[in-house]
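Consider the record:
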Amino acid sequence: MAATTVSRRLIGRGPELATLLEGLRAAGEGRPSLAFVAGESGVGKTRLLSALAAAARDEGARVLSGECIELGEGELPYAPLIGALRPLVRAGDPALTELPARARRELAALLPGLADDAPAEASAAGSLRETQPRLFEALLAALDRIARDEPLLLVIEDVHWADHSTRDFLAFLGRNLADERIIVALSYRPDELHRRHPLRPLLAVLERTPGARRVELAGLARDEVAELARELTGEEPARELVEQLVARSDGNALFVEELVAAGPGPLPPSLADALMVRIERLSAPAQEIARVLAVAQPADHALLEELAGLDDGALRTALRDAIAGHVVIVGDDDRYTFRHVLLREVVYDDLLPGERASLHLAVAGALERRLETDPAAPAEAALPSAIAHHYAAAGDQPAALRWAVRAADRAERVHAPGDAAVLLDRALQLWDRVPEPAAIAGCDHIDLLLRAGRAHRTIDEGRRLTLIGHAIREARADGADDPRVPMLLRERSMAEWTLGRGEASRATLDLARRMLPDDAPPADRTLLTISRLRLATLQSRFAEAIELAEEGNAIIAGQPEESRLRVEIGLHFGHALIMSGENERGCRILYDAIEEARAGGRMESVGIAYTNLGDALHLRGQSAEAQEVAGRGLAELPRDTMSYLWVRTLAAELAIERGDYPAAREYLDGIGRTSGSSRVNVDLRLAELALATGDLDGGRAAIEEAERLLVDSLEPQFVAVAGVLRAELERRDGTLEAARAAVERALERVEYCSDDTVRLSRLAVTGLAVEADAAQRARDLADGDEERAAIARAEIMLSRARAAAEGAGPVEVALAAMAEGHMLRATGAPADARWRAAAQAWDTLSRPFMATMARWRAAESLLAHGERDGAADAVRDALGAARRLGTGWLAGELEALAARARLPLGEDAGGTSAQAAGAGDEDPFGLTPRERQVLGLVARGATNREIGAELYMAEKTASVHVSRILAKLDVRSRTEAAAVAHRLGLSADA
């Protein structure tokens, strides 16, 4: 006789539990992580997580849990997060009530009652692209606050059913967890993940995040099945029974339980039959409750009372029967669900089609009545989505259309654009299937297409462009342009820009402005002008931006939101003016924007103004002033704003430029993971820091991450800098073709459209450095054709650098001096004077790394032209500066130069007495006359066999000579040996 039908303890799973507990303890030490528990249904994921939760509580951790619900895409936005946090709101937990007011207002969209002084809708201002990140930041701040006093275990089950917005938040966590005392445990079924399942690409990323742990549960072993049977029956199971259980269950714990619960006699032929045995043993009212719950789950007592047709006493008796039979459980939120999803599935599948549709219709009607009569119901984020789902499942297409639109409204208010997009797509599918759809939906088809397109903005830009295209064609179908066409064109332009179609985007927006009728609302004209201004700014078209800003300021005069619009225009106007040389006016406009935005409580705009002001000042050579601006921004801005991260990244960029690498590292380490353009910005700064300090592997990783996100970008602030850094990385690796290609690609994408002379000049100088290297290499190898080609390419780059410097911007002038030095290096002419001038220009701008680079090149030039004493002084100064900066790569280059040339550096610069002694030797490298002969042939490109034939020695002997020469010259390759021989006159025939 069975002692129980459900095991009360965890059987096996010791190593798996230990892995998860290790993650929990790491979280307690400030090393957060994501943990993944994968396994088929019934294998024991929930039981393992329950054991983890119990152990976590025993160790003093806090546990929150939520589960995803199988209602289909776009049904219940943020369902597991709401489920996890709602009990804390009801209890008035200080971890939430003491959050900053801004964070509480954002969370109130999901958790009504958290910010009684600010309704949920108040946080919905702004586009979904702006509001969802704010909600995510608030959620992370809440989790961080909860975990401050004790580590937090957040359990989210069944993420294979996660809604789009929950998946977005998990992606956000993967990027942004830094030092929070949090571990997030996620369970899912791998067998549910078909090839196009939306969770599959997310898991591919999340399971590779730092500290991620993955536990895959297989079936129980034979001895564990026997132990489970012993636990369930209270006696030693017969050997035959254990063998049958192993064979039939494949070690699945739930299958074992159900097979044992089926009782003595032949085992049921299928799992469904085994599960139905449990259901059929319930009383008739309890079975009816199970059928209702299979459709309505999760359901509270009132909903079951309305749907089951039982009086209160009978309902309670039926529920107790279902709970005692281990079919139904009561959750922390006092709602009823099946004990296991497979139990629900088998009951749902057993319903007749008409019975199923009728129940769905009844559930939808009950929920709709609740929404209309219960004052608290409208605050429930999931209710409209659930109603939409049940009407769709019932086949009531008019009601499904109406509620899909209403549910999308609610999804947008709770910052769930992905779920809104799915719901609106469903509404579009239903449009032609119902009579008078516009009356049902409350909008016409064009407006629905527009809404759906906007919702796809953060999900699928290609789909967004398609939907907006359909809307435009419909609006123009009857030959008379709909007045909405200009704003629809604006939407298309935004989608085209995001997809990297910069010129198409500009042309579309220009068309929208031309089509706007003279009597159009001023707000529409303003919106189009500001959109055009943004595009011009992003493409660094500063003259055009100034013209558009002045036009915009004329339009907004007297408009209701004049102050807000003036700030939005000023953010771009001031930056463009400074970049065009009107520093005083541009700074005044940006400072006015800061004051006006601050007065209106628009801190994101305050942060953008600080960022644009600091960036413009830095590009104009006023880095000290830019540093002051960044400092004020960091002191004033809330840390949970996106613009704070941009100001912090700017502070890191300024620290790199002034050679304060520890400060730069501290700024960047404090940012954490971000997304989109802010992620690109951080990656570029990480790459700059890595290249400055000599961490080529770190630089390569950061550049590759930035390039992945910049595939379609046309913004010079990103594309040009990424091209410079990629080219510099490849140049240092000696792959000059790849370096040249990186420069050319970047120039193709930004040169034709940009007024950003600083970044264009950086590209040109980098290209010149590459061609100078190529020309030197060609001379070393006596390849005249390649040398001439490299010089010709260098001259083109020089013309670009000179053109950029015509406006006399101090940074452009310093870069032009570098370009002149590289040009002379390419031709082999003396260049030390040019390099000294460049170093002085960088000193004036307080940019020591660039100044030290110039002094290194000056030393090279002096040495190449026989001025050893001057070269020694230049190397000594530059090496001291490089070591003070902590730029290991540049210090290494200078040390290698000194060692190869045996320059006397003295003890202060790290020179050795051997170097000093060797300085005056005729052959400072100690080459024998025979080795000098071999080196001469190496310099001409001879192979070991050709050297042996020329000098009458064996090929193996020639190889030994070459190896000794490489060691004495301290070089890695024959090409480098040839270069040293050529430039220092070491070979016998030099």
Residues 4 and 232 are 5 Å apart (CA to CA). The first strand starts at residue 33 and ends at 38.
